[in-house]
Every structure is written in structure tokens, then in C-alpha cells.
Amino acid sequence: MTITSDTELRAELSRRALLRNGVALGALGLFGPALLTRGARAAAADGEVLTGSHWGAFRAKVEGGRMVSVKPWEKDPAPSHQLAGVLDSVYSPTRIKYPMVRRAWLEKGPGASPETRGTDDFVRVTWDQAIDLVAKELVRIEKTYGPTGTFAGSYGWKSPGRLHNCQNLLRRMMNLKGNFVNSSGDYSTGAAQIIMPHVVGTLEMYEQQTVWPVVVDKTQLMVFWGCDPMVTNQISWTIGDHGGYEGMKALKAKGTKVICIDPVRTETCDYFGAEWIAPQPQTDLALMLGIAHTLVVEKLHDEKFLKDYTTGFDKFLPYLMGETDKTPKSAEWAAAICEIPADKIKELARAFAKNRTMLAAGWSLQRQHHGEQRHWMLVTLASMLGQIGLPGGGFGFSYHYANGGAPAADAPALTGITDGGKAKEGAAWMTEAGAATIPCARVVDMLMNPGQDFDFNGKKAKYPDVKMAYWVGGNPFVHHQDRNRQVKAFQKLETFVVQDFQWTPTARFADIVLPATTSYERNDIESVGDYAGSAILAMKKVIDPVYESKTDYDIFAAISEKLGKGKEFTEGKSELEWIRSFYEAALTQAKAKKYAMPEFDAFWNGTGVVEFPVTEGKSFIRHGKFREDPLLNPLGTPSGKIEIFSKNIEKMGYDDCPPHPTWMEPVERVGGPTTKYKLHIATSHPKSRLHSQLCGTKLRESYAVAGHEPCLINTADAKARGIADGDVVRVFNDRGQILAGAIVTDKIRPGVVRVNEGGWYDPAEGGKPGTLCRWGDVNVLTVDMGTSKLGQGNCGHTAVGEVEKYGGPAVTVGAFVAPKGAA
Amino acid sequence: MTALRRCDDRTAADGRPPLPAGLDAVAFDWLAALFARPPGAAAVAAHHAEPLAGLLADLAADPDLAAPIAALRAATGGEADAAAIRIAVAHGRLFDGLAGPETVPPHESAHVGDGRLFGPAVADMERLIATHDLGIADELREPADHVAIELAVLAHLTRLDHPDRVALAERLAAWVPAFARACAAHDRAGFHAAAARIAAILIERGPRDHTSSRDETNDEKRRTR
């Protein structure tokens, strides 16, 4: 070996030292601390832990501190197949591992290069740095832009649990910080929950239905209108009890006649062998009017019920019969719009009147332009049938949701951590916090039009000028409409903070990303069954937090501490002390009412679940008391009765929400006067997800078609477009384009395609408007406008478009793209 | 300048000459560090100065490693700050979940069995690490089947010339080639694809158990997916 210079000698010696001593690269001091340490750790525990989720309660098996399998709670009458996905989600490859900050934001400050949001350029930071950045930014925004500078309305389905209610925790911290813009309502019943108080004096949408045992006993004709309870009852806002499946099983065994009104022959329809009536989407109101008109013409409507229990029918009737606008809403008129033959419409009217009929309507009906009209007209129709408040008759709006209609147990109410705002009258979860509030689905309108007036439920307000948003427990870049418009709008924010456990499409568009734990990496407590309330369950921690994730409570406590409000946030309580306090508040109630319930320690350290019996709950009839005595038990409306005509709404003078149920052309519909597209795009709830939750898991493999979100398309429509079963298709309209995998079937009527909501937005070029979504996020195609000035709900079911076989370069994930020059 | 060589009675599985003594351990440690955390600008620049440049030169003497070493040099070349940024972004997209469905988990569990992370491989590696009185550094919050940890343990066992290194090399040989192929498909910066390829080749070069053929072992593992 020849050495020719000192430099070379030094280099050679250094290299040999590296080799000979096996010196780890730590000696170079460039690659960070050593990966391995001396000294073995104690082995982690084995065991089985009972806990719960939106999909139901389950037992998780733990080996060496790892969750290895889950099995449904043995008391669950109808466990959801999605539990396998729950396990996958905990160990998803898309778990957010550490706090991360968008590079441009970190290096150049808030608002820098907003067009790079969504391009995955993030830098890892420590928790201390992240908390510091978030706290400083919250204070700066409020100082600079005032009380409405930050939006913390943060809508989403998060996880169950009364302590780690991440949205309450966010607003609890924000209330201590100062002010923020809040949001009201939800994407589920946005329009209906605003109109129903005007019509029946109560929220209605989340209240107990006439229970299943009564329906099974007395209902002669069950009508599922725009809902698919066999699919949607898998999930609950709290821990799913699945009592609705017991009800449906009993109904099927009884042999009751079932009709399903839906553009798709749903799983519910197949389960019951029901009669399938398939109107064109967005025309259900016309169908209802046609039925109502027939009732009047054939003198089948219940005039006594209308007189005793409703007001305003006399003002609605002239509209129905065509006296006001020269257009009788006859079955023939309706048939031309909804494409159900007039004879069938008349047949339905007669069947509804002749039988004890339960009209079980879903919420898809009102997630459309003018959505308020549907449930208003449904209640009007039910009033004309005169069976409201009778056993097994009338209407119900939650048979499809969280197992509404499952008999309620005699159970105490379980409270949870509050956001510190004043409680509002109405539903227990509503508080009045925030310097300003917007209807939740108007978030993009707010960003696009700061300072502009907007109407909402009889009031006028101005959209605030929001510069920062903090989102937790939600995925607006999947649940909100018109994705391309949204991408542009969110680029106006100076700072976007997202806290979640997975790299959702929303997290990828953020500036600061904070890793939260799943429910299974922390302790909590929750009730089982939104309507049934059949048990209180200890959601015990299954495994320690993975990577650097922290619980939502710890994250918000840390931010509060940084803001000097740590003590106010925690009230000096630990996680378990909070949980104990909720349980003991319920226990106090239980003792007063003589419900059997153990002390907390026996509960938490024992079985971890306390069940409550059903007594009176199994004979509950919705509006039964009102029917018995409308004077003694009036509704909460101005008249005390069902308002078919509302003077309050008349005073508002809204052009898009007249004072009685009215057919109006939506902004776009197949067959409508201004619509060029030939296909309606239905966006109903998926079978193997909860909206977007669990999209990133193995469950996807059970339904993906050619690697994409499935698109149901009628055989005739497919044939006309040269599309075969299994083809990759492009679904598009003027708002955007997505890829999907075709399922050619006659389970969907012609003129309609269906791509389920909740598919993760996967832009080919993140941040670029109009870019193709590779997975099939249908909200790229939907309309982003309020249902009307009254409800300002979302229009997730208003979308028309076209479908063609996709001919571009393969983008199916899973197929390897040719590497660029890699070895 | 010729690298030091010593006569070695170990032979690589495919009959090629073994690496110079100690070089494989250093290489495994170096690769482990690259996969554990994205290298900063100083670490990136260090690849073009001694002693790392010499390490790369020695590795590149092997014909199979020449191309990936060249690719790695290219990926770390130019302005160090800019290269470090490119590599960090690629690291996030490939390994930290940012790229959603295009994530390539750097964990054994993802590439064997049913593919769910935190699988039985974690328990196996935890046992192995404990047996050798080792632990995983607190700051590295990864399960024990992370490629960086498996490579670091392999480096440790190789330095000790411990018999357990053979089984561990077999374990890595069963999944790192697939991991390398996935990196090649999704890596936009070229750095991790090259590093993974180098790791795959070095693992196959190292001392192996010849009582069962590698192909049989891999076929068996493939069938259990």
C-alpha cells in the first residue's frame, strides 16, 4: 500500500480506526444518539382488556404489550365486522408518529407558501417545540386579529369517551385562552334539526323512536325511506349496542310488509325481501306530495287528526291541490318528476292509509338542496295519515341511526368533561361558547367571504375573518363538500393545526400536526347505546401510547399550561380522577332512583361494565303523550301543535324556505331544467367504514375495486358507456374528477351511480386545483352550499355528473410505478 | 489504495468473497442510522469526506454494490442543506405515514405474515434484544422490528462474531429485499431506495445458514402471507 501524503495517511488511519474498533457512527457525532442501550427492559404485560368503540364493545387480547386480536363483547347481539379494522387502525402505517411542522411554515413563518400545503413536506419537532409553537400562535392570532381570529368549531366523529372528548377539550382550552369561532349543528341532520323545532317543537332527530317491540307488534307496513339501517346501525356516537338489529330480526320473523324507497336496492331491502321503490334522487318531496294529493282526492286523509293536532293545513291544502300555482301536486305531476308511475304512487297512498304505517325516514333526504322540506313534508304526510302517537304508526327519523328504537334502559345519565361554556337549552351537548358561531357546514363560505352577511334560522350574522383553525377528531378534507373549493379556501389560513392519530387527508394539509393516541391507548368511560343507554362501560387502556403519541387530554393540558391556565384546565384532577367523578355523579342519580350500581372501585377493578334493565322503555311510543292529551302535553311550537304552516318561518321571508312544505327545483338534478349531466351521484354511508374512519385499514381490501373506491353503476348506463364490471372509471363534473372501480349491477336504478362518502382524498398533485383524486373521494364532486337560509345544512347528496372508462396512465396504488433511476 | 483484507473461512451464500473484516458491522450500523432518522446536512456532507467516503469506496468495489453506492452518492451530493431536506421529506413520505397509501413501513411485520404492524416479529426481536442484555434507546419510539433496530442488532452481533448473527441475518434476508423493492417503487429522492438496496445485498453477502436454502425459506414465508 502506498501512502503519498499526510492527508491520505490521516484518512487511512481514520478509516482503519472505524473498521478495527468497530466504532459506531455515534463517534462521528453526526447521526444522532445510539439506537441501542445497555440493559434489558422488563417484559410488558399479557392480558385481556374490555373496552369500547363506535362499532361496539370488545375484548382486546394483549401479548407482550401488543394488541394481537379483538373479539366482540359477548353481550353484543350483532357485532360489526369492522372490529378487525379497529385493530388495524391502532397499528396503521399511517399513524402520526411525532409532532411535525410544515417546512415552509417553520422556516418562513405563518402563512408562508400556502400552495405547499398538501405536498407532504414536514419537519419533525419535539413536543416541547410543538406545544410552544401552538400556544404562541394562538396568542399571536388573538392579539393581532381579535376574538374571532381562530376557528375551533372542529366538526367530526372523533372517538367515544367522556373524558377524552377531544372537541370539548379543544374548546375548554380555547375558552381559557380567550375567544374563538365555534360551530353549530352537524353534517348528519343539518337541515332537519333546524326545521323540526319549528314543526314539532323539539330537535326530534336524536330522540327516541317508537320502540322496536311496539313496531314489531303493531306496525303493518314498515317504510324505510332513504335509509339503510342494516348498514348504518353498525355504528353509534357512543358505544354501539346494536339493539336495532334485534328489532329488525324480529320484524322480519313477524313477516311484516316492508317497502324500501331508495335509488339503490339496499342491504336492508334485501334483508327483508322488501318491495323496492326507486325514485330519482332529490325528488322524494314530489313523491310525498303526490301521495298526499291522492289521500285528499280519495278522502283517505284524517281530517280529525289534522284539526286536533296540527295547524296550518288549511294554508297548505290550496298549494297541494294547485289552487295557488295552477299546478295540482297530483300523482301524475309527481310521476313526471320522480319517475315512479302515477298508479304506484296512488297505490302507496292507499296502502299507507289502510295499514298501521311507520314512515322511517333517513337523513340522506335532507342532505340536499332545500333539505328542510323533506322531513317537514314527511311529518305533514304522517299527520294526514293521522297515526302519529299510535302504537306502531306515524314517523321515526332514527331507526337507521345508532340503533334508535332500541328500548331505553332505566339508567342514570353519564356526564363528561365540559368545554366551560354556558349550557344551552336543548340537547345536552350544546353549549354556548365562542365569540361567534357559524353553522358547521358553512366553514368554507366563512373562509371565502369574511365580513359577508349570512342568514341562519331567522337571524343574520357576519362571517368572521378567521386566520387560524385548530381541528381535532375530524377529517374535513373528506367530509366537506366541493373539495377543490375547500383546498383553495384553506390556503387562506395563516396557520392550520391538526390533531389526530392518523395522517388523514386533513392532516396532510396542515401546518402543525400533533399525534394523538387512539382510545385504546388511554383510559376513559362511556355509555353503551345512544338510545338504549343499556350499560356504562370502563374503556380501559389496552396498550401504552405508540410512537410519541399523547392523549388528547394531555395535549390540551400542556397547551393550557403553556398559556398559564394549566390548573384551570385540569382542576387538579388526573385522568382516573376525572373518570371517577363522572361515574360517581351517575352513581348519585342511580342511588336516588334505586338503580343497582356498584361503587367506582368495584366497577373499575371488577368487570368494568354495569348493565341496566329495560322496564317501561320497551313500550315507549313517540308522541304518545301528545296524542293522549295535546292540551296537557303540548309540543314546543308556538301553537303547541304540529305546524304544517309556520308563521315564524313566514316572517323570515326566505325565498328558499317558504312557510309550508314546498317543491322547489334544486340547483342541479338529473332531469332538471338547467342540468346537462345525465347521472346523479349518490353518496350514501359505506358498509365498512364510519364515514372516513377505518379507510386506512385492511377493511379496504374487502371492498376496493381495482384498487379504488367502488362505483355502483346500472347495467344499461354501463353498457351505453362501454364500461365493464371491474373497470377503473373516471367520475367527473364541473367541480372535479375522481377515479373509482366500477361495479355494474341492477341493484341501482338507471340514471344514478353511487360512490360512498368517506373515501380518503388522495390528490395526484396535492394543493393543485382540479387535480385527480386517485382513490375516489366523492366529495370532490358535491355541491358546497347551504340547504337554505333556514338550516344552512350541507348538501352532500346534491351532485350530478358523468362517468367514463378511465384511459390515462395507471395510478392504482399497489402497482409499482417504474422507479426513476433507482438501483 | 487497496482495502485491508484478511483470509476468512466464511463464505457468502453465493460464493462471492466476503467483506473485509469489520466492514459489514460498520456498514450495518451506518445503514441503521440512515433509516432511524433522516440525516441532517452535516451527516449528508459526511458521505463525501473521510472516513465515510472510504467506506463507500470499499463497498463499491463489490460489483453488485457499485450502482446503489453511486445512487446514494448522487442523492447526498450537491448542496448539503438542500439534499438533507430532500431526504427528510422522502423519509416522512416513505416511513412516517405522510404518503397515506404509498407509505412503505420500515418494519418487518409489514412485509411478512398478514402485514399488520406490531406483529409477532416484534416479540421475537424483543426477546433477542433482551437475551443480549440490550435495550432500545428511549428517543427511538419504534417497535423492535424496525429495520434500523434489526440492522443495529446485526451490527452488534457481527462485531461480537456471535452465532446468533446467522439467524438474525436470515430473518432480515426474508423481508429486506421486499422492503427494498417497495422503497424503489415509491422513493422520489433515490436515497432510501439506494440504502435499502445496499442493505439487502449486504445481508445476502454475510454469513448465512447453508443447511437450508434461502429460496426455500423465502417461499415458505411467502406462503404464510
The average pLDDT value of chain A, as a whole number, equals 93
Q: In oligomeric terms, what are we looking at?
A: heterodimer
Portion in strands of chain B: under 5%
Cα radius of gyration of chain A in angstroms: 28 Å
Q: Order of helices and strands of chain B, N to C?
A: HHHHHHHEHHHHH
Give the strand line-up of the largest sheet of chain A. 6-5-22-21-20-7
Described by the principal axes of the CA atoms, the overall outline of chain B is globular
Q: Supply the helix-strand structural class of chain B.
A: mainly alpha
Low-confidence stretches of chain B: 1-12, 210-225
- Strand content range of chain A: 15-25%
List how many beta strands of chain A DSSP finds: 32
Query: Helical residue percent of chain A?
Result: 25-40%
Main beta sheet of chain B: strand number and arrangement? none
| Class from secondary-structure proportions of chain A | alpha/beta
Give the topology.
The complex is a heterodimer of chains A (823) and B (225).
Chain A: H1 6-20, E1 36-38, E2 47-53, E3 56-63, E4 66-72, H2 83-90, E5 100-102, H3 103-108, E6 122-124, H4 127-145, E7 150-151, H5 166-177, E8 181-184, H6 192-200, H7 212-218, E9 221-225, H8 229-232, H9 243-254, E10 257-261, H10 267-272, E11 275-277, H11 284-297, H12 303-309, E12 310-311, H13 313-321, H14 331-338, H15 342-354, E13 357-361, H16 372-385, E14 394-396, E15 422-423, E16 431-432, E17 436-439, H17 443-448, E18 453-456, E19 459-462, E20 468-472, H18 476-479, H19 483-490, E21 495-500, H20 505-508, E22 512-515, E23 524-528, E24 535-539, H21 552-562, H22 566-570, H23 575-593, H24 600-605, E25 609-611, H25 624-628, E26 642-643, H26 647-652, E27 679-682, E28 710-713, H27 715-720, E29 728-733, E30 736-744, E31 752-754, E32 800-805
Helix pairs in contact in A: 4-21, 5-21, 6-16, 7-9, 11-14, 11-15, 11-16, 14-15
Chain B: H1 23-36, H2 41-46, H3 52-60, H4 63-75, H5 80-95, H6 108-111, H7 120-131, E1 134-136, H8 147-159, H9 164-173, H10 176-186, H11 191-205, H12 214-223
Helix pairs in contact in B: 1-8, 1-11, 3-4, 4-11, 8-9, 10-11
